Amino acid sequence: MEQPEDMASLSEFDSLAGSIPATKVEITVSCRNLLDKDMFSKSDPLCVMYTQGMENKQWREFGRTEVIDNTLNPDFVRKFIVDYFFEEKQNLRFDLYDVDSKSPDLSKHDFLGQAFCTLGEIVGSPGSRLEKSLTIGAFSLNSRTGKPMPAVSNGGLWMESLRTTGLEASGGVPGKKCGTIILSAEELSNCRDVATMQFCANKLDKKDFFGKSDPFLVFYRSNEDGTFTICHKTEVMKNTLNPVWQTFSIPVRALCNGDYDRTIKVEVYDWDRDGSHDFIGEFTTSYRELARGQSQFNIYEVVNPKKKMKKKKYVNSGTVTLLSFAVESECTFLDYIKGGTQINFTVAIDFTASNGNPSQSTSLHYMSPYQLNAYALALTAVGEIIQHYDSDKMFPALGFGAKLPPDGRVSHEFPLNGNQENPSCCGIDGILEAYHHSLRTVQLYGPTNFAPVVTHVARNAAEVQDGSQYSVLLIITDGVISDMAQTKEAIVNAAKLPMSIIIIGVGQAEFDGESPPPRCAPRGFRPLEMAPPKRVRARTAVCAAIWMSRQGVSVCLFAQGGVCQGVYRTPTHQGCGEEAPSHSSLLHPGSLWRVGEWHHGLEVRDSCDWAPPVSWPQFSHL
Fold it and tell me: Where is the C2 domain (predicted)?
């Protein structure tokens, strides 16, 4: 099951937190001796981390690890990146589940236990490594599924639900220990390098009785206390003793946290369906050694210590060779700005009839003398942020879905200012003025076609690809996309252009994302599933965030109030998907994002199985 990372960030605990310098801390989660909830196999554990608000004491989901199949002793690869404030008590909660399906609804999975602690406890423990017992605690039955729900601790007090149950439903009595959770914290360095490498192996030990081995690699970085922290897994290569794994990218801070001489241990396993993977052997290296690239120094003997002790003539269990190694540094938003990059902002507004008659107060286009309508709110919320990164403050403004005078021709990319040669308006105020003028001159019609405006901006973005300009298209609409297939194809065609798209839904229409991937999609294009439709009122706050990529288009669909309706994007790499460089938010274009990290309430994902959390945060701070 892939997750949805709502998601609070720890910097939201306090209104002043954003102005206080914070340390970035990476939390790694492991568990031992979990409850076994599956009859014919072991549990498939997932860990969910929650943070508690400073004022309202409400728990908000921060993120989820990946699911590991058939194990009671998981070492999760996906980390939690949080802001650490020494002067604050930052309460954390970790819930463990046995995943029974791909559903993102936690109530449909078996609850395995939970633990409470503070971030300070983890950081302050010897070696910044904290072990705590998992307990069932007080719990209630879910009214729909009959499964036990986890207890919630507010301010240190157990809040027991109205209906509690016992041993039969939970697999344990309230308060019973049900395994151990191991939490490790490490301060992240400022290293922004990303290493890309590829390995192969030769003559690995044969572990399967009826076939060859199914090998995969697991990378660990050493800790000061002599322990190791998992940082990457390769894909499994089936039925071979001479595998060639796919190229993968990993942030240097994840691999060694910027310490080039830090020991990196690599273990080689033979994959087994039941989760009892056979250990083939291991070797150690360092970033400095890997950085030498393909050479005689980077051919490693895979050694099984137990075999070496038992057999005098034992040499090795095969070899692993580094085929390629490259490193590049990710640029931050400030790097781009200092380099002269300009953001070209274009807005496209929905003029379809479903918005209602603009002269009536029920219309989403109604121009009240007392307040901005939903479209103006959305435009202002996003535009006021982006306009500061455009030196001339001239923004093209387009409309779609209207009949134009004098012949009533339907257009899906008409200039709001009426100037076909130059649709640019001066500042956000100029766009609003042109928008109000268009409402008085065009006839709302339909359908809701996005492809023309996407193609329009893509065409302009294609003219300048030297890094000096980045295009952002804001589409504000009230309904479901009519030309979904054409829109997807337009996005795919623009996948390599320096542009991003924001789609903000206003009103009470539903956005249905249950559609197949774009036709003619390039290799690696995998759209994420849309969130279940949600109705949101037009008068709620409007705000948005953008996923940007130097190598591809990223699209975020938002509704009023910051309810995310789903994400489409083109991955920038191939491989197992543990690391995904080159993605960033509007505030930090080009900075490094890793799969599993959370930024402004959004998780970096590289999977087509995605769903939203129970509730999304408001993005007004953006």
Answer: 2-132, 177-300
Instruction: Sort residue 427 into left (φ over 0), alpha (ψ -120 to 50) or beta.
Output: left
pTM of the model: 0.58
Cβ-based neighbours of 489, under 8 Å, separated by 6 or more: 451, 518, 519, 520
Beta strand extents in 136-190 (DSSP E only)? 140-141, 148-149, 152-154, 157-159, 177-187
227-238 core/surface letters (b: 16 or more CB in 10 A; e: else) = ebbbbbbbbbbe
Q: Return the CATH number of 193-329, one of 2.60.40.150, 1.20.140.10, 3.30.365.10, 3.40.50.1360.
A: 2.60.40.150
Q: Which class is domain 10-187? A: mainly beta
What's the CA gap between 313 and 324, in Å, rounded? Answer: 32
Q: DSSP E strands: which ranges in 330-459?
A: 342-350, 394-400, 402-404, 409-411, 414-415, 424-426, 443-444
53-100 pLDDT tens trace: 887 889 999 999 999 999 999 999 999 999 998 888 899 999 999 998
Q: Annotate 232-266 with DSSP letters as a single string.
A: EE-----S-SS-BPPPEEEEHHHHTTT-TTSEEEE
Quote the tokens at residue 31.
Answer: 């568990």
Distance CA 170, CA 142 (A): 12
